[in-house]
Amino acid sequence: MMNLPLYPVTVVGSWPRSKEVLRALRDKRAGRIGDKEFFQIADAATLQCLRLQEEAGVDLVSDGEQRRDNFISFVADKLDNVKMLSVAELLDYVEDKASFEEILGALDVPAFSLSNPAAVGRIRRAKPLALEEFLFLRQHTRRAIKVALPGPYLLTRSMWVEGLSQGAYPTKEELAQDVISVLREELKELIEAGADFVQFDEPVLTELVFTQKNANRTFMCGALTAKADAQEELRFATDLINEVTKAFRGHGTRIGVHVCRGNWSTQEDVLLRGPYAPLMPFLNQLDVDQLVLEYATPRAGELDALADLQHAQVGLGVVNPRTPSIETAGQIVDRVEEALRYISKERLFLNPDCGFGTFAQRPMNGPEQAVEKLRACAEAAKVLRSL
Ligand SMILES: [Zn+2]
Questions:
Q1: What's the pLDDT at 364?
Q2: Residue 98 falls within a domain, yes or no?
Q3: How far is residue 221 from each of residues 117, 262, 282, measured CA to CA in Å?
Q4: 186: closest CA among 235, 255, 286?
């Protein structure tokens, strides 16, 4: 694990894709180009976004998820017996199609974001999920590297589709056991390869507590099967994450969990809203080094919730990836000083609230804004280190 300065500046993961990458993703999916051609384009784009992060002053860089269509669907290419479902196919498995479509419309959910990986048999890792991408990046940078993976709860929720998965897994709890095995294999290999940070993305945790209506029928990646009882479901999610990380902490790789309230639209009013308080009891039970929390958006509530966080470091969201205006270093410094009332500086990392391109087809900003926002974080970090 590389030593990092105080207030390390990092990213949540994804970076906006260029037109070339978007075309290559489409062509690969349609079978018009093979892996070799695709990787030539994606590798070049990865190096470009790496260079931009380095120039902006990011201490802990990512590969920008340039090879992924979104933060979860890519697993279909890596796992045996996982099939990609389009939104039309997914609708076949929803009992009330009309109201589901209405929810999607009202929430400004892009239909393409719903391409969803579904388990249609016993899942198994055919290829590593992210190891090869990490090794590629390792060859090209001296900076510390963060690798983002979909968390076990997100994967289980998304991949267990009633009517498709039941043959192999009568319940989603049974699928969860194989999801845990897959993620443990991956985490072990990433630790052995020297990844500095592995982040598990669990955006649907907030959906359990902040969705008032239709709580059992979510829109994030078509995950359709939450239990009615949010507390029970949060306990289930906590157990899954802890099963994945068990015995892996303290081996040189920081392990984190990212929680946010959706990153599919620049319309803040359609995204979920609510403070961390109802999640805190569960976040405190997570066996991880760091929680990567959005805090630039007012939808995440007040910073005083951090006072209840007992152990974990915090990757503090200090810039909003969805807004066109660029936060100033001074604003970020003020925000961090407010956070320091509740949490010590040794426990703070600085990052955007979420990725800049969670869904390839709908980036939240262009690369220019992403660079400027990260540069503001790096400038703020420099000021904070000198205080
Ligand atoms: Zn996020």
A1: 87
A2: yes
A3: 9, 11, 23
A4: 255
Rounded to a whole number, what is the distance in angstroms from the first to the last CA of the chain? 26
Q: pTM score, two decimals?
A: 0.94
Write out the two tokens for 320. Answer: 């909003």
Q: Alpha carbon of 94 to those of 76, 163, 364: distances in Å? A: 21, 10, 28
Report the separation in Å between the CA atom of 196 and the middle of ligand 1, taken as the mean of its atom positions: 20
- The Å distance, Cα 34 to ligand 1 centre, comes to 30
20 part of a folded domain: no
Helix (H, G, I), strand (E, B) or coil at 92: coil
Provide the domain count of the chain: 1
- Return the closest-CA partner of residue 11 out of 366, 321, 340, 333: 321
At 227 the pLDDT is 56
Ligand 1 centroid, distance to 39 Cα (angstroms) = 26
Q: What is the mean pLDDT of residues 311-340?
A: 97
202 C-alpha vs ligand 1 centroid, how far in Å? 8
The CATH number of whichever domain residue 159 belongs to comes to 3.20.20.210
Domain interval for residue 335: 53-386
pLDDT at position 113, please? 60
Cβ atoms of 38 and 27 within 8 Å: the answer is yes
